């Protein structure tokens, strides 16, 4: 059988959008571990936030931070020959780090310029830890980790569709892009799809042919979902799927966040990729 690789978003997908718990996905997580299936996190969260949740999940696989800002490969995870030379690469903290995103200081400069241009935006860099906790529902320890950004600036922006289009055009005019998850995000020339493509390439060099699965729930997951063999979306809080997926031929799993995630993975591993004796 082909090696199965599962790539997952966190917020609103594996993590409950209100409580940030993954308890509802525990049966599927146990099945993944039993079958030794790599589970790679691909999130808008920071490196330290993802490490926090990887610890809770007892996960030692590669991960992608801040909407494709960087790919983190644990040292020794792949043989060297499976890892192609990458122009922007670091080694440190127990990882080979493939940097794809813009530098955070440049994103913050763009935020200041956008405000000078009349856009009323407020980024995580403008907020205290207490304010981030209030707008996200995180506790203060987790909010402090969310503030430790490297490649992506989440921000709040109020306005109608026309205002959002004007903002997106203004951001592009400064050489950056906007994507959406729970918040808007200003990012460089990186996205989850580009990072996932690099990671999948490493798995292919290691295992040959692989079957790739990605699970997400929001607009910022679109590039990731379009890069895999089986894209799966879960329902948003309140039910239903993000309108950005209208017209996309993605597998739709009933259930919000980890409940939909659990249902999708169990169905996937029992029907599409059953164990053959």
Overview of the molecule:
The N and C termini lie close together (11 Å). The protein folds into two domains: 3-101 and 191-272, 3-Layer(aba) Sandwich (Rossmann fold); 104-187, Putative mannosyl-3-phosphoglycerate phosphatase, domain 2 (Threonyl-tRNA Synthetase, Chain A, domain 2), CATH 3.30.980.20. The chain has helices spanning 26-34, 47-57, 104-116, 129-136, 140-146, 161-173, 192-207, 222-225, 258-272, and strands at 3-8, 39-42, 63-65, 70-74, 89-92, 95-99, 121-123, 152-157, 177-180, 184-187, 210-216, 230-235, 251-256. Strands 5-6-4-3-2-1-11-12-13 form a nine-stranded mixed sheet, sandwiched between helices. A four-stranded antiparallel sheet has the order 7-8-10-9, with helices on one face. Strand 2 (39-42), helix 2 (47-57) and strand 3 form a beta-alpha-beta unit. The protein has 277 residues and is α/β, with parallel strands linked by helices.
Described by the principal axes of the CA atoms, the overall outline is globular
Q: What is the CATH homology-level superfamily of the largest domain?
A: HAD superfamily/HAD-like
Percent of residues in helical segments?
25-40%
List the total number of helices: 9
């Amino acid at each position: 059988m082909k090696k199965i690789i599962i790539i997952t978003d966190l917020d609103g997908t594996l993590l409950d959008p209100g409580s940030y718990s993954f308890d509802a996905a525990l049966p599927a997580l146990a099945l993944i571990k039993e079958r030794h299936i790599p589970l790679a996190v691909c999130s808008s969260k920071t490196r330290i936030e993802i490490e926090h949740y990887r610890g809770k999940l007892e996960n030692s696989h590669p991960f992608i931070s801040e909407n494709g800002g960087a790919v983190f490969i644990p040292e020794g995870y792949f043989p060297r020959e499976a890892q192609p030379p990458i122009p922007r690469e670091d080694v440190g903290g127990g990882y080979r780090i493939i940097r794809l995103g813009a530098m955070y200081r440049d994103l913050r400069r763009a935020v200041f310029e956008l405000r000078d241009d009349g856009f009323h935006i407020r980024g995580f860099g403008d907020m205290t830890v207490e304010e981030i906790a209030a707008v996200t529902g995180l506790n203060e320890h987790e909010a402090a980790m969310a503030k430790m950004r490297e490649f992506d600036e989440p921000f709040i922006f109020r306005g109608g569709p026309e205002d959002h289009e004007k903002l997106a055009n203004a951001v592009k005019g400064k050489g950056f892009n906007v994507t959406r998850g729970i918040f808007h995000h200003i990012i460089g020339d990186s996205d989850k799809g580009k990072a996932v493509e690099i990671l999948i390439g490493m798995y292919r060099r290691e295992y040959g042919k692989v079957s790739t699965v990605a699970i997400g729930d929001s607009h910022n997951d679109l590039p990731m979902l379009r890069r895999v063999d089986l894209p799966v979306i879960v329902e948003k809080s309140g039910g239903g799927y993000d309108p950005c997926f209208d017209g996309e031929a993605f597998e739709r799993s009933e259930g919000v966040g980890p409940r939909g995630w659990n249902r999708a993975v169990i169905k996937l591993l029992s029907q599409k990729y059953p164990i053959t004796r």
